[in-house]
Amino acid sequence: MSKKAKQGFQVAFSLLIAVFIFYYLYRDLDGLALVNSIKDTDFLLLASSVTIGILGYWLRAWRWKILIETGEKSKVSTGRVFWALMFGYLVNLLVPRAGELARCGAVNKTESVRVGKLLGTVVLERTIDMGFMLLMIGLAFLLQGSIFLEIFGLLVSLPQLTDFTNSYFSIGLVILVILLGMLFFAYRRYRHSGWIGKVRQFLRQFVSGLETIFQMKKQFGFWSVSVLIWIIYFLMMYWIALAMPATNSLSIPSVLMVLVMGSIGMIAPVQGGIGTFHAMVAFILLFYGISEEQGKIFAMVVHASQMLTVMVLGGISLLLLPGKKK
């Protein structure tokens, strides 16, 4: 099987999983209930959620620009970085995780920045986002600890978890040692070949991207924007919750919990978190007295507002991005 055929199969398989989860989740949804819920939605609050979401994307682009410019002689356009970011999000709707490479390619096409460094900054950015997500989970646990414990009790059996860890930890460790040994042998055997040199050069560029966190000058701005981005994520969710009658009584800690569960759903390797986001959000809303049907509708509205924004801005990026390096 050719490389393109394998990639096509992976994309199709991932999309099939997303469609199956979505269909399974919504197959019994009452269409009239969906229509009535949308009719009763406060579209001013919904539009406010979308607007502040666009601001969040712009801030993400500005934050990435700080990392990209660190160690570079020339400045990078925030606008071009923004459209590259939206192009990456659009690609993620088609091929999970491919958007990270796509946005690096888009910036490399118009700016004199090495792809290896760009990928390093993306990995760094994602690592920072994961750290903030863990902080959000910790905050949600402090505010909604009883809900966390109830979910843990429903989903996890401590004896089974202990048995699983004991059984597979040693196996995983042996496999890791074998893989590291194979990599070391391959390096020793082929270290003078041309492709090893290219790999080493790429890794040096990649590490230079990771090191920008220590070298960047706008430390305060970077970390302030990182905090603000997650505040915006919360406001996007909270304003839509206020916009819909079924969820407008949710408290701030409750919406934070919904945001955490939705973020976990977005991590799944399916296009745009389709299905997994909806399932996680609808599931957690059950703990706050929101019916399964209304929880699914809320999840659909939140997800659709984000996806339509990405599709529109990503589509515009296709028109604005093409160009030559400066």
TrEMBL record:
Subcellular location: Cell membrane
Keyword Transmembrane helix: yes
Listed GO CC annotations: plasma membrane
InterPro entries: L-PG_synthase/AglD (IPR022791)
Record's keyword terms, sorted: Cell membrane, Membrane, Transmembrane, Transmembrane helix
A Pfam family this chain is assigned to: LPG_synthase_TM
PANTHER family with a match to the protein in the record: UPF0104 MEMBRANE PROTEIN MJ1595
Record-linked NCBIfam families: flippase-like domain
UniProt-recorded name of the protein: Lysylphosphatidylglycerol synthase TM region
Organism: Cyclobacterium lianum
